[in-house]
Design brief:
The complex is a heterodimer of chains A (about 350) and B (about 325).
Chain A: H1 2-11, H2 20-45, H3 60-69, E1 75-78, H4 83-88, H5 93-100, E2 124-127, H6 134-148, E3 154-159, H7 166-177, E4 182-188, E5 191-192, E6 195-196, H8 197-200, E7 217-221, H9 225-243, E8 246-251, H10 269-276, H11 280-290, H12 296-319
Parallel strand pairs in A: 1-2, 1-3, 3-4, 4-8, 7-8
Antiparallel strand pairs in A: 5-6
Helix pairs in contact in A: 2-3, 2-11, 2-12, 3-9, 5-12, 6-7
Chain B: E1 2-6, H1 7-21, E2 25-29, H2 45-49, E3 54-56, H3 61-73, E4 77-81, H4 85-88, H5 92-99, H6 102-105, E5 115-119, H7 135-139, E6 145-148, H8 152-164, E7 169-173, E8 181-185, E9 197-200, E10 205-209, H9 213-226, E11 231-235, E12 238-240, H10 244-254, E13 257-261, H11 269-281, E14 290-293, H12 303-309, H13 313-323
Parallel strand pairs in B: 2-3, 2-4, 4-5, 5-7, 6-7, 10-11, 10-13, 13-14
Antiparallel strand pairs in B: 1-8, 6-12, 9-11
Helix pairs in contact in B: 1-8, 3-5, 9-13, 10-11
The chains are: A alpha/beta (about 350), B alpha/beta (about 325).
């Protein structure tokens, strides 16, 4: 963990490598996710949002770097810690917040809740609630792209906990055998619920499991949108050239518990503080200002815009209607006259 | 016009016709391509369609079932063959948690047009892990449709319907009866999902069954006819949705029913049918519903155990006589 911190502080002294638009997009994306998640936690506390809630706070640099590195036509599938990724793909914060509220204006009409956002328009193939189940699914999404002969890929994301599921090993094996266009990303936030990576395997460097399949694999600093963007761009280029899948273990940290019900007693406050000292939003803001990429006024304008947007999202969610319970029978079968058992 | 085809050839013909019709349809599974299928159902398909569309997988049921689900969500129409449904238990997460629920949890954004197929049921002395039926397990789950049929003509028509269907489908065949021959119509036809077939008309008692137990039911009906008992025999063909209307109409005529079901009795297909009968035909029954199931135990290896375990014509005849109070 300390290595990441050192690396980031060194990198902070470098001259900015990307243009103003890129930095501001990263900054805005990360801030939008952070504020959305803070608001969702608050509304959970007020019992406006129920069920499970797994927030993305601390991991925003991954979503930011991801969006700039891949095409919008590329597919993405992930697990249940998904709000940030969905928002970064362009799904409106209004529809996301309304979904958390269980309203019919939600992205999936109140049917999925926090764990299951889907949008065909945004090529967002879901948040999956079964740890690791999306790994074969993402592999199959990539299979279909190769079958049709497109140059698109499927970003298949999962946590460090899912990296221990058998589904990963089966998928990696077939994806390499068939050279499928799949970019596997392990968001290693160091804890599978309350169990640290070191306690779940003899191999703590998760990227190394790719080597069993001769899959190109590397570890990436996930606290910086630049490093995420660079690694993903490189991986995407490799995949699009027809060479098959690529595996990135992106080391990150979630500031909050696994879900809202987790007080996080399995880790120290110092560890959390160390990561917060390299917070991707703070570091990026500093870089933008110190590198004269944008002015303090421009940063403030972004902050004000995001604040207003999130407030509007809450207002939209609160003013929307709940679904009608009679609609329970919609969307179980494509067959319109399916004879349900009674 | 019609021809005589074995079950395996009829299923292959159905898959082949659909693959010629739609490039999005492909077959994947263990040994389906170069080996020509563990039970030769896919024999010759690699030659016709090539390795892009007839895909040999490693032994990784969870993985390739999930790849099928992802491919289906992304526009293809996979046929996923399990060498037997016993092995598909490894893939149940993908069938139950994803294929069946994709439409609901995405509120209709994504559907999952996929066919999972393979043989189900005991197939001789194969012992506990290879001698199970899975219709009840899968039919319990909303989102899925379940087909179980060994009649060659209907199996061909049903797999064609299944491939064209926009919902996820589980199709159960029979390892022991892939060689079973039957008249198969020439030309294009589809057999509807969700419709039972009256295989034999009768007036005294209804025998309802499916998959290879249909052979037991028919044999029993033949013997009963010699004793002057006229049995109507219904082949469910589809397990979910269940065509209770055809069963109920028959019971209204015969007033007596025996359910013949190879699966275990507890929370099984026979229980569901019995519930539906009491719901829709209670006033027409002249005797309680009786079922002939496998017993409530795992099936061991020795021949004597298999003999004692499996439903057979004698057990069915005894059940029929009990509902007729004879």
């Amino acid at each position: 963990m300390t290595k990441v911190v050192e690396k980031v502080s060194k990198r902070g002294k470098k001259t900015p490598k990307y243009n103003k638009e890129t930095y501001l997009t990263w900054y805005e994306t990360m801030l939008r996710i952070r504020r959305f998640e803070e608001k969702s936690l608050q509304k959970y506390g007020q019992e406006q949002i129920r069920g499970f809630l797994h927030v993305y706070i601390g991991q925003e640099a991954i979503a930011a770097g991801l969006v700039s590195a891949i095409k919008k036509e590329d597919a993405i599938v992930t697990a249940y810690r998904q709000h940030g990724l969905a928002i970064s793909r362009g799904i409106s914060t209004k529809k996301c917040m309304a979904e958390l509220y269980g309203k019919k204006t939600g992205i999936v009409k109140g049917k999925g809740g926090s764990m299951h956002f889907f949008s065909k328009e945004h090529r967002f193939f879901g948040g999956n609630g079964i740890v690791g189940a999306q790994i074969p699914i993402g592999t199959g999404i990539g299979f279909a792209e190769k079958y049709r002969g497109t140059d698109l890929l499927c970003v298949t994301m999962f946590g460090d906990g899912a990296a221990r599921q058998g589904a990963l090993y089966e998928s990696f094996n077939m994806a390499m055998t068939w050279k499928l266009p799949v970019l596997y990303i392990c968001e290693n936030n160091h804890y599978a619920m309350g169990t640290s990576v070191e306690r779940t395997s003899n191999v703590a460097d998760i990227y190394k499991v790719g080597s069993a399949f001769d899959m190109p694999s590397e570890a990436v600093d996930g606290m910086s949108p630049e490093s995420v963007h660079e690694a993903l761009s490189r991986a995407a280029e490799h995949i699009r050239s027809g060479k098959g899948p690529y595996f990135l273990e992106i080391k990150t940290y979630r500031y909050k518990g696994h879900s809202v019900s987790d007080p996080g007693t399995y880790r120290t406050k110092d560890e959390l503080k160390e990561y917060q000292s390299i917070d991707p939003i703070k570091v990026t803001e500093k870089k933008i200002l110190e590198g004269n990429i944008a002015t303090a006024e421009e940063i403030k304008a972004i902050k004000d815009k995001i604040k207003a947007e999130i407030n509007e999202a809450v207002e939209f969610a609160e003013n929307s209607d709940f679904p009608d319970g009679d609609n329970l029978f919609e969307d179980n079968y494509m067959q319109e006259d399916y004879p349900y058992t009674s | 016009m019609s021809r005589v085809l074995a079950l395996r050839d009829a299923i292959r013909e159905g898959m082949t016709e659909e693959m010629r019709r739609d490039d999005n349809v492909f077959l994947m599974g263990e040994e389906v391509a170069e080996y020509n299928g563990a039970y030769k159902v896919s024999k010759g398909m690699l030659d016709e369609f090539g390795a892009r569309r007839v895909v040999d997988t490693p032994i990784a049921e969870l993985g390739f079932a999930g790849i099928g689900v992802g491919a289906a969500m992304n526009g293809l129409r996979p046929i996923v063959e399990f060498m037997t449904w016993n092995f598909a238990v490894l893939a149940f997460d993908q069938i139950i948690n994803n294929a069946a629920k994709t439409l609901s949890q995405s509120a209709g954004e994504f559907n999952c047009p996929i066919v999972f197929r393979g043989p189900s049921g005991a197939a001789g002395q194969l012992a506990q892990q290879h001698s199970q039926t899975f219709e009840a397990w899968l039919a319990n789950c909303p989102g899925l449709k379940v087909i179980s049929c060994i009649d060659p003509a209907d199996a061909k028509g049903l797999i064609k319907s299944a491939i064209r269907d926009n919902d996820p489908i589980c199709m159960m065949e029979s390892e022991q009866f892939y060689a079973l021959e039957g008249e198969v119509p020439d030309g294009e036809y589809l057999t509807p999902i969700g419709k039972a077939a009256v295989r034999r008309e009768g007036t005294d008692v209804t025998i309802v069954s499916y998959n290879k137990m249909m052979l037991v039911a028919n044999d029993a009906a033949d013997q009963l006819a010699k004793e002057g008992i006229s049995a109507e025999v219904i082949d469910l063909r589809t397990i979910r949705p269940l065509d209770h209307e055809t069963i109920v109409n028959s019971v209204k005529k015969t007033n007596r029913i025996v359910v013949v079901d190879e699966s275990w009795p507890y929370a099984g297909i026979s229980s569901e049918i019995t519930y539906q009968i009491q719901k829709y035909a209670f006033d027409y029954l002249d005797a309680p519903v009786v079922r002939v199931n496998a017993p409530d135990v795992s099936l061991p290896y020795a021949a004597a155990y298999v003999e004692a375990y499996m439903p057979n014509p004698k057990k069915v005849i005894d059940a029929v006589k009990s509902v007729m109070y004879r």
